[in-house]
Specification:
1 helix; 171 residues
Length: 171
Amino acid sequence: MRALTAGAALAATLLAVAGPAHAAADVSVSAPFLQITADAAADGITVTQVGGRLVVRNDGGLLFPGAGCTATAKNVSVCDADGVTTIVADTGAGDDTLSNRTTLRSRVVLGAGSDLFFGGTATDLAAGEAGNDRLAGNAGDDVLIGGDGVDSANGGDGADKCDAETVTACE
């Protein structure tokens, strides 16, 4: 009985001193989509295009590659771009940043938190939820929806539709 009590006390101590949660995201390809799903922590995700590959980086934490992707570092994956036309992402709760530095369309749900979104050169659809979000569509005919909070949206070039407390370059 004493060993069991000591073991339970050790387990409780280890749980009490566990560090803070770290951000993590999963990335995979299921053409025509590059899919990114993040947990409820602050992620800093950037997608770039290099030749026939998509490079996905999470400066906020870990990145776990799935089908069509290979890890090159604990927070970087390279994915096959063949047949991919759209980035689909759900960043989960937390103060997240998602940057689409590609020619691909994107459909992004930013989750609760004060989030940042930077669209690419194609059409982007970005939806913030609770929190004070800043959304920038850049080129393309974008739809930017701030959600609850004091949000700002800048459509950039193109025929953009925006729903936020502060809007710029929107129709």
